[in-house]
Amino acid sequence: MNISNHRSLAVLLSFTLAIFLLSACSQTITEKSSSKTTSSENTPLRVAIAPYQEMALLVNEKQLGLEKKYGTRLEILTLPWEEIPSAVASSGQTVDVGFASLPDYLAKVQNLNRQGDDPLLFIYPAWMFHGGGFVTFNPAVPEMNTQAIKNPNLIKKFLSFRLGIQKNSWGHMILWTLANSVGLKLSELPIIDTTLNDGFLAAENGSLDASQAGLTQRTEALKQHGRVVLTMDTLGLVDPGGFICKESVYKKRKKDIDALIRMWFDCANYVLSDLDHHSDTTIAYLKTNSSTKYTLAEFKRALSQEYIPKSVAEAEREIISGKGRYSLSRAAAADVAYLMDIGATKSPPQIPKMINLNEQNVASP
Predict the structure, then answer these.
(1) How many Å apart are CA 193 and CA 213, to the nearest integer?
(2) Are 217 and 200 in contact (CB under 8 A)?
(3) Positive/negative CA dihedral, 260, 266, 272, 278
(4) What is the rounded distance in angstroms from the CA atom of residue 9 to the CA atom of residue 5?
(5) Distance of alpha carbon 9 from alpha carbon 135, whole angstroms
(6) Full strand arrangement of the beta sheet holding 191-193
(7) Does residue 232 sit in helix, strand or coil?
(8) Do β-strands 133-136 and 98-101 pair in parallel, antiparallel, or remain unpaired?
(9) Which CA distances in Å does 66 have to 43, 58, 63, 72, 77?
(10) Sign of CA dihedral 317, 362, 88, 71
């Protein structure tokens, strides 16, 4: 073989080696890219909760091994209750999923969904709150019990006081119900729009005569020798709370969000089945994050003011079906009537359709 042939062979071998190395490099890059894609699918689902007694049930999920059971990792983030809907509306940029009350969701959904075609969805109920009310430190404010709400003069007297409420909430709806019963409009009442905690402090300091109070504020008011003067139970009202997320996030993380909802009910079942022995983790979280430092007795009393199903099947039967003790559709219809009457929405908000967790292949809402 002459020198020319040797050179040709060398060039051919070099070219073949280059092709081999390029192919190997390409395969390595593809494998790394595939590995990156796979790992992104294991990104924790970011869940926003507020430091309230029912949402805090979810913090039991790790000790119960639910992430392994359902193949979904969670990252639980604590946010103020009022900030959760806007955080969830960020389409996964802040959090992926959170909780909201149905009347608050219905009041805000048209504005939140104004931009584009990726709506914020209320996808599944988690509890039915019926323990909210109004607290006072003013002895002149009358107690509005089942007898008092039949007395128009007492109702008008109660409504004449400076009342702190969160607009478009169950507290606002309580006052709307009372005002309607005596021919008054909300615009005629001396009400102040405020958050629950700020309203409580204002009532305690005398800047307000009474303030809307959730279970946290009711518990704190009783500690500070205040009074509960009106409750949702007295008027037969309920405030449904449940899971919210953006449609795009649900489509992308459907498996994980469905798993989260099942985890929620597993946590609820664990704690509620034995409050004396299964409440430690929840109470520890609340002591760190909540303005109220619950004792076990106070935690029990708080939970007694709401209905929390212990399973998906129970939620379907008692809330979603419309035939149980707490009808979501009935509560939603009352919320829409209230919101339309006070002008909170320009058109009737659509009552959300719940996802179906009993089917293996659930269509996106």
Answers:
(1) 13
(2) yes
(3) negative
(4) 6
(5) 94
(6) 191-193, 163-165, 210-213, 133-136, 227-231
(7) helix
(8) unpaired
(9) 16, 10, 8, 8, 17
(10) positive
Which whole-number Å values give the CA distances from 237 to 172, 174, 178, in the listed order?
12, 8, 12
Residues paired with residue 210 on neighbouring β-strands, in sequence order: 136, 163
| Structural domains in the chain plus CATH codes | 45-129+239-341 (3.40.190.10), 133-235 (3.40.190.10)
Question: What is the pairing mode between strands 45-49 and 74-78?
Answer: parallel
How far is CA 277 from each of CA 10, 232, 283, 284, rounded to the nearest angstrom?
Answer: 79, 30, 11, 13
258 is written with which tokens?
Answer: 């469905």
Query: Which position has the token pair 């022995």?
Result: 277
b (16+ CB within 10 A) / e for 234-273: bbebbbbbbbbbbbebbebbeebbbbbbbbbbbbbbbbee
CA distance 66 to 80: 25
**194, amino acid identity:** T
Distance CA 203, CA 163 (A): 9
CA atoms within 13 A on the CB side of 121: 21
CA angle at 236 for the pair 272 and 265, rounded to the nearest 5°: 25
> From CA 62, how far away is CA 39, in angstroms rounded?
20
Q: Which residues of 320-345 are buried (b: 16+ CB within 10 A; e: fewer)?
A: beeebebbbeebbebbbebbeebebb
Q: Which residues pair with 241 in a beta bridge?
A: 101, 127
DSSP 137-189: S-TTSPP--TTGGG-HHHHHHHHTS-EEE-TTSHHHHHHHHHHHHTT--GGGS
Please report the pLDDT score of residue 92 as a whole number: 57
The Cα–Cα gap between 34 and 42 comes to 13
End-to-end CA distance of the chain: 75
pLDDT along the chain (365 residues), means of 10: 40 41 40 35 90 96 97 96 89 85 86 76 95 94 95 96 89 91 92 92 96 87 93 89 95 96 98 98 96 89 92 95 90 89 83 80 36
- Give CA torsion, residues 211, 212, 214, 215, to 10 deg: 40
3 state DSSP class of 98: strand
